[in-house]
Specification:
- The protein is about 40% helix and about 25% strand.
- The protein has a domain at about 50-120: Alpha-Beta Plaits.
- A 4-stranded antiparallel sheet has the order 2-3-1-4.
- By secondary structure, it is an alpha+beta fold.
- A hairpin with a 4-residue loop joins β2 (about 80-85) and β3 (about 90-95).
Length: about 120
């Protein structure tokens, strides 16, 4: 009897795992079954207005919805234009004024992700 109960529990865990994996593959990890995340666009899209650029290595960004959440968190900041790439696990951030690394980390953290590193580009 105990063996049957243990086998049943293992089967249930396997079914739930396969179901979760299937949802992630077909719909994305953090937006499974939900509405797509609306994009927050920067007010100014002229690259010449952004003299400072940083590349951020983002932890936990695994799908397009994750990338959009990171972009939105950064694009909500004044004078920032961000573009995230979930496959590379990084985001390019253009700034009108140089921001402190801590400000960028807080914005990414508010979206639920971590920052592994920030590289200032020329």
């Amino acid at each position: 009897m105990a063996t049957a109960v243990i086998c049943l529990i293992i089967v249930i865990i396997c079914v739930l795992s396969v179901r979760s994996y299937t949802k992630r593959v077909t719909r994305g990890c953090c937006n499974a079954g939900g509405d797509p995340v609306k994009r927050v666009k920067p007010k100014d899209k002229n690259p010449e207005h952004y003299p400072y650029t940083s590349k951020i290595k983002v932890e936990g960004m695994t799908c397009a919805s994750c990338a959009r959440r990171v972009e939105n968190a950064l694009n909500c900041m004044d004078g920032v234009w961000a573009k995230a790439d979930s496959t590379a696990g990084c985001a390019t951030v253009r700034m009108k004024e140089q921001l402190e690394d801590e400000e960028i980390r807080k914005a990414v953290s508010s979206a639920g992700y971590g920052v592994a590193g920030i590289e200032k580009l020329e």
